[in-house]
Write a structure and sequence with these properties.
The protein has 316 residues and is an alpha/beta fold. A six-stranded mixed sheet has the order 2-1-4-3-5-6, with helices on both faces. Helix 1 crosses helix 4 and helix 7 packs across helix 8. The termini are far apart. The relative contact order is 0.09. InterPro entries: HET. This is Heterokaryon incompatibility domain-containing protein.
């Protein structure tokens, strides 16, 4: 097989197929381990995701690309088609009653499950994703095997990037009415939703009955000036960080302050939920105290940033 970028020459069908396989492999590694297939409601691991792709019209179209394409044209056509096919949407929400877990939906369609509050929310999320032409959707409730420590570690370490590279994050505010303000929602008090808000490039807020918040029919609520002002007031986070946040150690004090009034169900998660915001990768030890988890996080931040003044701020 010739290498992409090697210059103009005719390409064979085997060249194209191998190029497609490599591009799919590269793409799959950057997206969640499991995704819900919105047309069928079935949870798919990476092998199943690839299988769906290989049975798709997009795959057949790529296989029939003309042999006259040069390397750059071939690479562009393949990458664009694969990126579009594997676009996915993520759910940001507060956990409620009857949330379906991985073991509850494996080998089933979510559309066939009974209507607990959690299942209904998952169905509505997938239906809204499908209406916006997304074949794939991800929810933290059922797309992670929480009984597998290695997978849980990987998921927590990857979650910021999963939200960042999703094409849309759907925020469901279960406690906000169609005429209410989202500023009072508990969504703004939870630890994990801070990461989800900052990581997501495109967001749409929905009220309790799945209507767009404030009836603002935009493709991205972060791009609406009035709603962005509301977001800034509700979070205390400047608009430039809400729309263009970069994970890392810059202004660590502010990043800790944003999280200081938030809470998590498991105390140690208050530290784990910040790993992505600071771009740190530390071991997950469920059962450790919140103080120990935060201590490890602060130690890493101080080690990398050199800002020992954080200790004074935390003490206060």
């Amino acid at each position: 097989m010739r290498a992409l970028g090697a210059g103009p020459s005719s390409v064979s069908s085997s060249d194209i197929k191998q190029s497609i396989e490599k591009a799919v492999s590269d793409k799959i590694r950057k997206i969640p381990l499991r995704l819900l297939h919105t047309p069928t409601g079935v949870l798919c691991d990476r092998d199943a995701q690839i299988s769906h792709f290989e049975g798709s019209p997009q795959y057949k179209q790529l296989l029939s690309l003309p042999s006259s394409l040069d390397d750059q044209q071939l690479e562009t056509e393949i990458n664009n088609a694969i990126s579009e096919y594997f676009e996915y949407t993520t759910l940001s929400h507060r956990w409620g009653s009857g949330e379906p877990l991985l073991r509850d939906i494996e080998g089933k369609s979510i559309y066939d499950l009974g209507d607990t509050d959690g299942v209904t929310k998952l169905k509505k999320f997938c239906i809204h994703a499908l209406r916006r032409n997304f074949q794939w959707a991800w929810s933290d409730t059922c797309c992670i095997d929480k009984d597998n420590n290695a997978e849980l570690q990987e998921a927590i370490g990857s979650m910021f990037s999963w939200y960042h590279w999703s094409s849309l994050t759907v925020v469901h505010l279960s406690d906000v009415s169609n005429t209410g303000s989202f500023a009072s929602s508990v969504w703004f008090t939870r630890g994990w939703t801070l990461q989800e808000l900052l990581a997501s490039r495109t967001i749409l807020f929905y009220t309790y009955d799945w209507l767009l918040y404030s009836k603002i029919y935009a493709v991205d609520h972060k791009s609406d000036p009035a709603l962005l002002e509301e977001l800034q007031n509700a979070t205390g986070i400047a608009k430039q960080h809400l729309t263009n946040f970069s994970p890392g150690m810059d202004d660590a004090r502010s990043r800790l302050h944003w999280a200081s009034r938030r809470r998590t169900t498991r105390p140690e998660d208050i530290a784990y939920s910040l790993f992505g915001n600071f771009q740190v990768h530390l071991p997950i030890f469920y059962g450790e105290s919140a103080q120990n988890a935060l201590g490890r996080l602060l130690g890493e931040i101080i080690s990398r940033s050199g800002d020992i003044s954080l200790l004074d701020w935390v003490g206060k």
